[in-house]
Amino acid sequence: MLRYDDFDDRAETRYMPYLMYFHRAGYRSTTVNTDRLGFRLSNGTAEQASVENPPKGPVRLLAGSSTPFGIGATSDAATMASRLWSRYAPSVPWLNFAGRSHNSMQELLLFLMHRHLLPEVDEIVVFSGLNDLALSRLPDAQRGTHGAFFNCGEYFEQMEDLRARHRKQKRGFGRRPGGAQGDPHVVPSLADRIAYAVDLTAQHLASLRLLAAPTGARVTYVLQPLATWVREAAAAEEKAIFGELDEISNFWDLYGDIATMDAGRRYAAALEEACKAQDVRFLDLSPVLAESVTESDWLYVDRAHFTDHGTEIVCGLLAESLGLS
Predict the structure, then answer these.
(1) Which partner from 87, 126, 170, 314 sits 20 to 30 angstroms from 183, CA to CA?
(2) HSE-CB for 125 with a 13 A CA cutoff
(3) Where does the source fall among the domains of life (predicted)?
């Protein structure tokens, strides 16, 4: 995890046009490695590939945010894309097409910007959902039309400073510096947050389907399993880790309302309806995972990201649930 902290060093953030940010390119360590575009490498039984250097013939894409990217995996070979390719669904190579801290709009843009580099695409599995729901708590001014993104508050602050540098002092009528101050932001209700996140996701999935249609790829949406959506009682190792993380973070203040089992089920039901309306396969992995593990299974390194053991179980369940060989 210290290597992932170095990988995510904010002082080294790679800002990009349109996408806002993406992974450090050409990063090398014993744990995580990226190609010159910033995509993480994935491993088959005897082959390594990435978006920069894809294998010949059809491929499958594992898209989404930090969980399919593999935060918590001890090596590139231990990520979901690699385990699917090397063991659980090896008939077609899998590429790691995930973006750390991305929302559904950024997932769509990532595909739009790099589609021309890909060979024939057989399958696109979007393993996502948590970030859009988490970001739904932000003010309307930050969410805008297409949804908020992580650290967008810093972006808007910098843009306001830029506007101020270009603004000319106007005479007459005495302008008040600073402008009017609005009411403090009130976090929307859980129902409103779910509806907002689902609506955005549906819009972006519709666009992804249009972009993917010429490739013949099937699009599947998998709602990622937050630890608290899977089971009430965590493994002993998870309890210890979660307790330490809670002492240095504000997880429950920011995400307590969406972290409940009930919130996860309500969100999944709404996403399932949205996917059904677009003929997109949908899988809520939380109850599937819950039925396949015990309290002794150490699945998570934090409430969103898997251990290697967790990844193994999840990949087996994905292959079985989605009929992937």
Answers:
(1) 170
(2) 28
(3) Bacteria
Report domain extents, the chain.
2-149+186-322
Q: Is 218 left (phi over 0), alpha (psi -120 to 50) or beta?
A: beta
Nearest to 88 by CA among 44, 56, 145, 154: 44
pLDDT (mean) for 43-55: 97
pLDDT above 90 for 179: no
Confidence class for position 252, pLDDT limits 50, 70, 90: very high
Distance between CA atoms of 307 and 299, rounded to whole angstroms?
A: 5
DSSP state letter for 295 = T
Q: Check residue 180 and give its pLDDT.
A: 42
Output the CA torsion sign for 276, 299, 311, 316. Answer: negative
